[in-house]
Amino acid sequence: MAEAANSNDNQYLTFTLERELFALDIGSVREVLELVNITRVPRTPDYIRGVINLRGRAVPVVDLKLKFGMGATERTVNTCIIIVEVNLDGESTVLGALADSVQEVYEMESAQIEATPRMGTPIKADFIRGMGKSGDQFIIILDINKVFTSLELAGLAQSLGEAAPENAEA
To answer: Can you give the residue ranges of every domain in the chain?
Structure first.
């Protein structure tokens, strides 16, 4: 990536899961929605909470807390759905990610982002792009394209009956 950095390259949408602060590259975020009714889809993994109607299109909603082994997201006044675009194997998929709350768009220079620390155990943490800091609190920067495997997304698309990748609506 030898291109000139544009102004969004170091901007991240911060959000909370439990009391931990997470972030997503602003380029992968389409919008943030208030929590709406989620329709449960039978025979999907627990972390797939169901689908929502987003302008006439069924969009799967993932509970990141369940995916990360942190328990289920509870409905509160601050609970929201972050609509993200995930790119896996060259195909674009839109999904919603439940968050306890959305904080702000935070700007971090690459020098402020540290590599993911070694945990001393064989845990899979390649979905973490790095660790930033805001005051005394760490920000876990996620790589949304690595949170889900292509197998998980393919299974999700199959269980939801999607016939083609998302490119009809923008």
So the answer is: 3-151
Which pTM was predicted? 0.82
* CB contact burial 101-118 (16+ within 10 A = b; e otherwise): ebeeebebeeeebeeeee
Question: How far apart (Å, rounded) are the C-alpha atoms in residues 132 and 21?
Answer: 10
pLDDT digits (tens, 9 = 90+) for 109-131: 887 888 877 665 555 677 888 89
pLDDT in tens, 43-91: 888 899 999 999 999 999 999 999 988 999 999 999 999 999 988 677 7
CATH 2.40.50.180 for domain 3-151, yes or no, is yes
Strands 137-142 and 48-54: unpaired
Contact 127, 143 (CB under 8 A): yes
Q: Cα separation of 157 and 30, whole Å?
A: 19
